[in-house]
Amino acid sequence: MKKYILLLLLAGCGFQPLYTERDTDIYVAPISGINGIELRNRLNAKFGGARDAGAKYTLVVNLKAPVTRYKALETTGDATWQEIVLTASYTLSADGEQFARGTESASESYTFVRYLVAANASYNNAVQNTIQVLAEKIGTRVIAETYRYEQDNPDDDAASE
Known about the structure:
5-stranded mixed sheet; 5 strands; 4 helices
């Protein structure tokens, strides 16, 4: 019963999910490097598919090289855990005018083993997971910023229709 009351209260508060019937006309500019290609693909998927350069919004992302840190060492000095950190800065613009920018980072720890194939697989999985988290963080922030931009500039929407 308490769940239904909570649901009724939320229904009447004016809450609107961020993704409801929103056209995310966002062009993601190419990002350099293999990790950049993967990040761009994930951002495009989050925004509902790739757009051309004529989209309403343009997102430019600068992805830094991954940073790896040792997290755990054995008494022999060998590393057993490492952490990978990816950082990306981005700018969001509409009609050639930048209206939002920021920096996001994500990290993941992984097991570092002596066997080359297993070590590479562990590293690659950590990188892929970190890129996914980074895409979610940037994508969510960008969608929120486009929503805020549209609320602050309602005349732009009417002119484009």
